[in-house]
Structures are given as structure tokens and as C-alpha cells.
């Protein structure tokens, strides 16, 4: 890695928490958003990690709730001319890459992702240039510029299968940006994987000893873990997978209690899928002390009702995602490569 850049030492300023709205204000903004969606010929797509009231609104208005790539794919297929992306900035960029003809709006362009921030393009270019013999695979949680540098883009749901495929071809891998997911993939496949040392600030805070103690309190509970979590947490899991895979695991596991180690925003859709099961938050570094995010991304929390209404009403530089056309074309190549590969896998 570039000797002058260490993503693990980077400190990301947390955004202020949105002001709490009264019940009357929530009702007002919900009605306003529904009106603006129709007026703008827009559809709303929301990530599993946004707050429940945002997910509910997306569902009520004919939008979708899913992971980042499925959000973009849904938007590309939907006839609406405008997409309102409730998530973080790279998700809006991915939507624009796949739907250049559409207007992509976000509640705020200040909603970032520590994985994206921790992999700046100049430093990543230098890292790749230092290892020209390696195939570059980047996670979807990256900027359009980093995607354009890559040979492949990948999601957590097919990461193991893709790296297994590349390993079978004798290829050595650069993996970016999440080191935990990279190490998980390397362990599952045995491939030669060189990891960029980024991390998700949410998943990085799950703590092994605290989870072991929690398992002792709930001995009959299954543990569901996103692979962006540290290896020691993954090793305690009964199921490991992407957001959608964890929801499926919740449905398929026989356990009546589930300890879930990912952003607590997922609980809304997961509880819908398993209404009779008890969902428990896995402990973070905040147990009995202080925590930076307490299992909820602070940037995802910026997607409030007022911000969504403002984005739909005003658009413009504060809300519209724009991607340079040459950069978009470059990023589309590894994205399409991944989509073509995913289509070959069993459902």
C-alpha cells in the first residue's frame, strides 16, 4: 500500500444527528413526499440500513428496499424518470452508472461511507500500480472512480463465488476496500488475495467477548453475521452473508431467537420476514461504555423525511448525483462483468 496513506488511521467526522420530528411533522413530510414523487415522475429506493420509517415509505410508494446493487438494478428497470436514492453517496453513483438517462436525487450528498472514504482514488491507483500482475476486484461500497479502476466489481452476496472463479483461472487478486470481507473471502477460497486495509465503522465495532457473553445469555439463539465483521465474529456465526442473505437465513434457520451482527436498520425487513422470532442486536464496543455508532451507520441516519422532501422539491447541486461520462463508462465495464457472472450462478 502507499506508504503515505493508512485507511485504518483515518478519522471520519461523524455528521450531526437529524433533528427529531414530531408526529405532525412526520405526517406532513410523508404526504409531501408522496405528492412530490408523483409530480416528479420519481420512484424511491431505500437501503436496508435506513431507518424503518424510510423503508416503509419506499414500500408504500411502489419503490424498493434492498442492498445497494439491487437498488440500482430496480431503478434501471423502473419506468420512472427520476430515482430518489435513500442511502449513501456511492449508492447514488451506482444508480447513475446504470441509469445515465435518469435524474438521480439523494436526500443529501453528504451521506458518505467509511469504506468509500477510506479508499481514495489516487492512493488506490498507486496501490494497484505497485501490483500490476494482480486482478483488481472492488466491493460495491466504493466511488465511481475506484470502480472504473477495477477489473471486477463485486457484492458480498457473490464475493466467494467470484474469487473462487478467478482463483480457478490462476489469477492473483487485489481486494478493496474492506479487509474483513477480503480476509473472509480468502479464507473461504484459499485464493491469493492482497487486501486494501479499509473497514466499515459499523461492522468493525462488534466485539468477540461481548458476543460470547450474549450467546451464554441466549444459548438457543442463532448468530447471523455480515462478513464485513471481524474474523473472530464471523467464526461465532451460524449464518454469514449479505443483507438479503441474512434475511433469508433468518427465515430458514429453525431458531426462535436470532442475534444479528449487522446494522440494526435491517431489523425492520427481517422482522417482517420472521414475525414470530425474537431479534437481538449483537453487542458493539458501546456495551457498558461509549460507542461511535452503536450498530447504526450515522450517514444512513441522514436520510430523514425532511431531507427526502427537500431533495425531491429542490434537486440541484445539493441533491443530484452527477458522474463524469468517461468515468461512468469505465465503471460500467466491471459492473456489467459482475452482473453477467452473477447471471451464471444458481438462484
UniProtKB/TrEMBL annotation:
Binds 1 [4Fe-4S] cluster per subunit. Its cofactor is [4Fe-4S] cluster. Gene3D superfamilies: NadA-like. Transmembrane segments: none annotated. GO terms for cellular component: cytosol. It catalyses: iminosuccinate + dihydroxyacetone phosphate = quinolinate + phosphate + 2 H2O + H(+). Pfam families: NadA (PF02445). Keywords: 4Fe-4S, Cytoplasm, Iron, Iron-sulfur, Metal-binding, Pyridine nucleotide biosynthesis, Transferase. It is found in: Cytoplasm. The keyword Metal-binding applies. Iminosuccinate binds at residues 47, 68, 139-141, 156, 226-228, 243. InterPro entries: NadA (IPR003473), NadA_sf (IPR036094), Quinolinate_synth_A_type1 (IPR023513). GO terms for molecular function: 4 iron, 4 sulfur cluster binding; metal ion binding; quinolinate synthetase A activity. HAMAP family: NadA_type1 (MF_00567). Catalyzes the condensation of iminoaspartate with dihydroxyacetone phosphate to form quinolinate. This is Quinolinate synthase. The gene is nadA.
Amino acid at each position: 500500500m502507499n506508504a503515505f496513506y493508512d485507511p485504518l488511521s483515518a478519522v471520519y467526522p461523524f455528521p450531526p444527528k437529524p433533528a427529531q420530528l414530531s408526529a405532525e411533522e412526520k405526517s406532513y413530510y410523508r404526504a409531501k413526499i408522496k405528492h412530490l414523487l408523483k409530480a416528479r415522475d420519481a420512484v424511491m429506493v431505500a437501503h436496508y440500513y435506513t431507518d424503518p420509517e424510510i423503508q416503509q415509505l419506499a414500500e408504500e410508494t411502489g419503490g424498493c428496499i434492498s442492498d445497494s446493487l439491487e437498488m440500482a438494478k430496480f431503478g434501471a428497470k423502473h419506468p420512472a424518470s427520476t430515482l430518489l436514492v435513500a442511502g449513501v453517496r456511492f449508492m447514488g453513483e451506482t444508480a447513475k452508472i446504470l441509469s445515465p438517462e435518469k435524474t438521480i436525487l439523494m436526500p443529501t450528498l453528504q451521506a458518505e461511507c467509511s469504506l468509500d472514504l477510506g479508499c481514495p482514488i489516487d492512493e488506490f491507483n498507486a496501490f494497484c500500480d505497485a501490483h500490476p500482475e494482480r486482478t483488481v476486484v472492488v466491493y460495491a461500497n466504493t466511488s465511481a472512480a475506484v470502480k472504473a479502476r477495477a477489473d471486477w466489481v463485486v457484492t458480498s452476496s457473490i464475493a466467494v463465488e467470484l474469487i473462487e472463479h478467478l482463483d480457478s483461472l490462476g489469477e492473483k487478486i487485489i481486494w478493496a476496500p474492506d479487509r474483513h470481507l477480503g480476509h473472509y473471502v480468502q479464507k473461504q477460497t484459499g485464493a491469493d488475495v492482497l487486501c486494501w486495509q479499509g473497514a466499515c465503522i459499523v461492522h468493525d465495532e462488534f466485539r468477540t467477548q461481548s458476543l460470547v457473553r450474549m450467546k451464554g445469555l441466549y444459548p438457543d439463539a442463532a448468530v447471523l453475521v455480515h462478513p464485513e465483521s471481524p474474523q473472530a465474529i464471523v467464526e461465532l456465526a451460524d449464518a454469514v452473508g449479505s443483507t438479503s442473505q441474512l434475511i433469508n437465513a433468518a427465515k430458514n434457520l429453525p431458531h426462535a431467537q436470532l442475534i444479528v451482527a449487522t446494522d440494526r436498520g435491517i431489523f425492520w425487513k427481517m422482522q417482517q420476514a420472521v414475525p414470530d422470532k425474537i431479534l437481538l442486536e449483537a453487542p458493539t464496543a458501546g456495551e457498558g461504555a461509549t460507542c461511535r455508532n452503536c450498530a447504526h451507520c450515522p450517514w444512513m441516519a441522514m436520510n430523514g423525511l425532511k431531507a427526502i422532501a427537500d431533495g425531491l422539491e429542490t434537486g440541484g447541486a445539493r441533491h443530484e448525483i452527477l458522474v463524469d461520462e468517461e468515468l461512468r463508462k469505465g465503471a460500467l465495464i466491471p459492473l456489467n462483468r459482475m452482473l453477467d457472472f452473477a447471471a451464471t450462478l444458481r438462484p
